[in-house]
Amino acid sequence: MDIVLDRKELIKYPFLKESQQLARRHVESLEEFLDSGPGAAALERAQERTSAAIAFKKEFGDENTQNLKPEIEIASYALARMLVSCVGDRSLIDRLARYEAERASFFLAAEELEIRRFVAWSVGIDTRAVVMPVTRYVELVPHLRDKRWRLVNRDVRQGGVNLEASEIDELIRERIRVIIADQLPLRVPPAICERFQPITTGIAALLQQQALEQFGEVREEAFPPCISALIQAITTGMNLTHMGRFAITAFLHTVGMNVAQIADVFARAPDFDPDMTMYQVEHISGRGGTEYTPPSCATMRTFGLCVNRDKDCERVNHPLSYYRFKKNVKKKRS
Ligand code: SF4
User: Fold this and answer.
1) Measured in Å, how far apart are the chain's first and last C-alpha atoms?
2) 313 in ligand 1 pocket by Cβ < 6 Å?
3) Is pTM, for the whole model, over 0.90?
4) Hey, is 133 helix, strand or coil?
5) What is the pLDDT of residues 192-213, one digit of tens each?
6) How many angstroms does the Cα of residue 219 sit away from the middle of ligand 1?
């Protein structure tokens, strides 16, 4: 497409190759850039981006209070991707991808038609068509949870899915999110991650704090029966399957336990092996980019891990929903 975005427009869409080219023109060596004043400003802004992603911030447009040059602002996007890659927590990576996609979508909504078309086209979506080929549609929607996206709920004619204009906007945002998430984690040289350590330690702490705030203090008495059964199995020295270990680790991590606290749960086993446990827990908790989202009830059932169901299980389709529900009930009673 024959459109050239100016530098101020590129700030809004830092994932575009044109934006990356602009930033690259001003950064020859990463080390030298980080040692420079603009590099320090970009890193500070990258930290802000990451914190906003952790906080699920949804207001945009007021971020560039330091009036950074466009290339520095775009470099901060690249540095934010490096920061989350160094932290290595998949949930953090997903949050950054979601934040950047929401941010781009916010700006796109106010954009002239031509620019909107160009950005959408850059991520593989043609905004001129209100009918999307089914094959393309099914590639775009697998992570959209709302039932209206399911193909059976769509108006499909002659191999095409009819879309409302607002739905095309949602698909553009989702496409941007997937593109960003799929590119991460980056392979950041260990020396650079070490350099970022004071910042990444703060980011990891913020992430943990946010999880604790979201789920509150961890209360084992509100755990769903399947998770309690897994803990019981560990305590009695039973060997868990890989899926069992994954399910409990991902669950405990999501409700706000850190790696050491999760390892403490595994330490209840009579044959506890600290090194092996730490390795597995760190891996499943997301270091190295492993997906950490705990399995849903349907997956738990498939793997024979849905046990001791009780009446509250009827209300939920995810162990995390059970936990949230039970905690709220207990809070109201106390
Ligand atoms: S229904 Fe869901 S929450 Fe309840 S025991 Fe089964 S997997 Fe756990």
Assistant:
1) 62
2) yes
3) no
4) strand
5) 999 999 999 999 888 877 766 6
6) 17
